[in-house]
Amino acid sequence: xxxxxxxxxxxxxxxxxxxxxxxxxxxxxxxxxxxxxxxxxxxxxxxxxxxxxxxxxxxxxxxxxxxxxxxxxxxxxxxxxxxxxxxxxxxxxxxxxxxxxxxxxxxxxxxxxxxxxxxxxxxxxxxxxxxxxxxxxxxxxxxxxxxxxxxxxxxxxxxxxxxxxxxxxxxxxxxxxxxxxxxxxxxxxxxxxxxxxxxxxxxxxxxxxxxxxxxxxxxxxxxxxxxxxxxxxxxxxxxxxxxxxxxxxxxxxxxxxxxxxxxxxxxxxxxxxxxxxxxxxxxxxxxxxxxxxxxxxxxxxxxxxxxxxxxxxxxxxxxxxxxxxxxxxxxxxxxxxxxxxxxxxxxxxxxxxxxxxxxxxxxxxxxxxxxxxxxxxx
Length: 378
Prior knowledge:
The structure is a single chain. The longest helix is centred in the last third of the chain and has 18 residues. This protein is an alpha/beta fold. It has two domains: about 240 residues, Vaccinia Virus protein VP39 (Rossmann fold, 3-Layer(aba) Sandwich), CATH 3.40.50.150; about 90 residues, no CATH class. It is globular. The relative contact order is 0.15. Helix content is about 30%, strand content about 20%. It contains twelve helices and 13 strands. The protein starts with 6 loop residues before the first strand and ends with a helix.
């Protein structure tokens, strides 16, 4: 793939480099790190391996990091913060890797080469983890390093047909007035973000920044527009019939209405356990609003997203393909897919939406980098 260019970038918890794809042009990666061997292989396939250091972030030292970056990006593990996880928070082993990142930035500060900008990306559950205490701890830690901290909640659905809200905590050593606002505003300062910011201790609340980020143009793609027509791995008819039988009466009525109305429709379906009349019941729940559900890592059968095709009286089903997952994350079709469906879906289920990162970079991060005193002097 074409090498990126721009201001120096450190990319931590890099995965398959989807953040790098969104930042390219504005920022050039000079160092990347991930602990997962499969993700590291995918990263090397896409970008080469000269910038990548595979291994635990706790085993890195500041001497591993070249020069001074304008931006350090960290999509730190979300399993202990996600609503689907155990909600153990920043003290848990996986999401606690944030403190390994913090340790490196603290050391770079001592060496007078800390990045001008930090971006930490995670699930929106960080806002409510431990009643907001984890978000407060993160803001406090970055504030202690001398950064002005703010946050934005960005849904990938603004850019691609996938419902995927994510939290982006942006910390900068300088907060120019033209890139900040006097208070929160839609769509990126959500009510959940406003609530947790209002509960910050007074000293942190006074320092908290409402970053300015305009809404993007209206998305003009639907799930059906991203279908991989080359994929013909259809479920057997009896498997599709079982999915339809697992639908609630209301869900089944919606499918029947689409069949009677004609035309081609594609819905995204998950199987979920619901409690009905005191009993655990597995339900197949599909949405036909033009969006896919949030991509997940394939931890089990119920986590695999299924596509339901309704074409007149004909109803077919199959699993979401790796290429479709890549497209839902905004990765270009020339992005090399990992070998194996499970590896690919794990990569994208843990990834970040490329167009969302690109919008954030062009509208806020690159202007912040350009306004930084270190860049001006350079």
